[in-house]
Design brief:
By secondary structure, this protein is of the alpha/beta class. It contains 13 helices and 10 strands. It folds into 2 domains: 228 residues, Periplasmic binding protein-like II (D-Maltodextrin-Binding Protein, domain 2, 3-Layer(aba) Sandwich), CATH 3.40.190; 89 residues, D-Maltodextrin-Binding Protein, domain 2. Helix content is 46%, strand content 17%. The strands form 3 sheets. Strands 2-1-3-10-4 form a 5-stranded mixed beta sheet, with helices on both faces. It has a 3-stranded antiparallel beta sheet with strand order 8-5-9, with helices on both faces. Strands 6-7 form a two-stranded parallel sheet. Helix 2 links the parallel strand 1 and strand 2. The chain is globular and about 55 Å long.
Length: 329
């Protein structure tokens, strides 16, 4: 794992020094790199982006199925805003980017094929599949390995919770981690075949928005609109999870899923709302402190969490402005 991270750091460091921006965005333009395959769990973010467009920001959504690629797009100038939790990138590579709002906190479920594994101890020396390097899924699995005194034989990177669910069903993957929607799907599609392993309560960032220091300085008005819409959509869905279905239909989101997905969407967001996983106040300094503890325990950042400075990872000004306008919830 350390070798892979070192290679990744070297690639990004080279990108910082040599990559040329490909068509810098004009005022009023915002290119958002989405480092995942959009699914049910993306509706809140996608709806916020559509509302940002309605308020005059010309948003281009760039779908990249890997958080590494989204981060590299920010570093190389091919995108302006990324979605993820780039703590490792900020600290270990020294990339001049900052998180400016939390979207959601971690709600992932480690799942194993019961024919082969029953508990955490059975995964010692075995292969697991997670979303991407530096992702929340990887952090959860690394932390659980540390807590249970085990070491994985190999970590495979398989972007997309739905893709990992399919691999589990097909038997090509025997241990992985999925979101709530795909956990429920596994339970319905193959009753008794899989075991959901227990995890401690997690309050760390799953998805947040981040950008370079320069972009945040030079595009404050556009950034403020995006933050406001993220807060508003999160609050509306938390208050009434059925709103997620309305967002989907209004903005024609995820059309490939068909109308039959509406029930699943509402159930997913009801469970998410009950867990308080949508960041209705955008996270901020309190979220940063939780993240320092979690990502340090998972080994993705270094140092005493209490000694880490929020301003080294976050720019709180856009969130402060949004909360001053919208109030806290």
């Amino acid at each position: 794992m350390s070798t892979r991270r070192a290679m990744f750091a070297a690639v990004l460091a080279a990108a910082i020094g040599s990559a040329l921006p490909l068509g810098a965005a004009e005022a009023g333009d915002m290119r958002i790199a989405f480092g995942d395959l959009p699914g049910i769990e993306s509706i809140q973010t996608l709806a916020a982006i559509e509302r940002t467009k309605e308020r005059g920001v010309n948003v281009e959504l760039i779908i990249l199925n890997d958080e590494d690629l989204a981060a590299q797009a920010i570093v190389g100038g091919q995108a302006d805003v990324g979605i993820g939790a780039p703590y490792t990138l900020i600290q270990k590579v020294g990339v001049p980017i900052r998180i400016f709002a939390q979207i959601s906190t971690l709600r992932f479920f480690p799942v194993v094929n019961s024919e082969f594994y029953k508990g955490w101890e059975d995964l010692d020396g075995q292969e697991i599949a997670v979303h991407a390097r530096g992702s929340g899924t990887e952090a959860v699995m690394l932390l659980m390995a540390k807590n249970h005194g085990i070491t994985y034989g190999n970590i495979s990177y398989v972007p997309g919770s739905e893709v990992r669910r399919g691999a589990l069903l097909q038997g090509t993957v025997k241990a992985s981690i999925v979101d709530a929607a795909n956990r429920r799907a596994l339970e319905a599609e193959a009753p008794g075949k899989f075991v959901v392993l227990p995890v401690e309560d997690l309050g760390a960032t799953d998805e947040a928005v981040f950008a370079t220091v320069d972009y945040l300085e030079n595009n404050a008005a556009d950034v403020d609109i995006l933050v406001e819409e993220l807060l508003k959509t999160g609050r509306e869905i938390t208050e009434n999870p059925a709103v997620a279905v309305e967002f989907r239909n209004t903005y024609k989101l995820l059309p490939d899923l068909g109308a039959e997905a509406d029930t699943e969407i509402e159930e997913y967001y009801r469970e998410t709302a009950e867990a308080g996983a949508l960041a209705v106040n955008g996270g901020g300094a309190e979220a940063a402190a939780d993240d320092f503890e979690f990502f340090a325990l998972a080994g993705q950042i270094e140092g005493d969490p209490a000694s880490l400075e929020v301003e080294d990872f976050w720019d709180l000004r856009p969130l402060d402005r949004a909360l001053a306008k919208l109030g806290t919830n």
